[in-house]
Amino acid sequence: MNYPAVIKWSGSKRLVAKQLSQYFSNCETYYEPFVGGGAMMPFAKTNKGVASDIIPELINLWNAIKTNPKLVADEYQSRWEDLQEKGQEVYYQIRDNFNQNKNCFDFLFLTRTCVNGLIRYNKQGEFNNSFHLSRPGINPDTLRSQLVLWSKIVKKFVFYNIDYRECLLDVKSGDFVFLDPPYGGTKDRYTRVEFDLNNFYNELERLNTVGAKWLLTFDGTAGKREYNYVPPKEIYKHKFTINTGNSAFTKVMNSKKDTIKESVYMNFNPIHIQANLFQKTFDEITVCV
């Protein structure tokens, strides 16, 4: 099944999560150090999970969903009802408040009502996406049921607002790691600092050394743009390409759709799945992120 997105996230693997999860193996602890919208978490084959991200309000929101989904639903409903009554001025008031206080409930509301759900920060670290005029935001009753579902899913997870390397410090043999980092050559959407590939590749090598399995979605193409940052061949053992959808960013900037194709890397050889059949499945999928 494809679980509904409780947190809207550009670049989400939600509609291809089930297929990707076929490569997941049973493990002692599942790690996801770039958790974002958490699309892969329902498929973790373990009773213990660790997830992290460097965006504080995102991790605060995940912890709130885990511990008190009713409160999260009530907070969203209050803001949503104000929006329906008073119009888009409510959105911009909440955005201003968020940029001052980083309230995680404001964050949830913004991700559900901004243009194409695109989470975007300026150089000052301020959320700067605009209100989506043609969408009223997800109905509170629908979101409430999704929050209850996800609260159950993430009970086995611990969430941390830390760097990915700190999240992975305790990884050992028998653990599984799913990695969905920023593209090489791009800047992190939150810190606006270019993602350091050398540090990242060194971390992958360390994971290999400790005997953990990992799966990485990484470089690829978005329309005519190419992000060709293939990891050193000695780091991974298997690679294939998937169609993960359409770029929300180019849709916002110039109203066209750029199809995204990403490379998937693993430090193990899959035995139970024929990669060519898996590739065919993805080629036939059109995903709207």
Your description of this structure?
This protein has about 290 residues and is an alpha/beta fold. It has 2 domains: about 160 residues, Vaccinia Virus protein VP39 (Rossmann fold); about 90 residues, Adenine-specific Methyltransferase, domain 2 (Orthogonal Bundle), CATH 1.10.1020.10. Helix content is about 35%, strand content about 15%. The chain is built from 10 helices and 8 strands. Strands 1, 2, 3, 4, 5, 6, 7 and 8 form an 8-stranded mixed sheet that branches. Helix 8 links the parallel strand 4 and strand 5. Helix 2 crosses helix 5 and helix 4 runs antiparallel to helix 5. It is globular. The two termini are about 15 Å apart. The C terminus is likely disordered.
Summed up:
With 289 residues, this protein is α/β, with parallel strands linked by helices. It has helices at 17-20, 56-67, 69-86, 89-101, 104-113, 140-153, 164-167, 197-210, 248-254, 275-283, and strands at residues 30-32, 49-52, 157-160, 176-179, 213-222, 225-227, 238-246, 259-266. The protein is built from 10 helices and 8 strands.
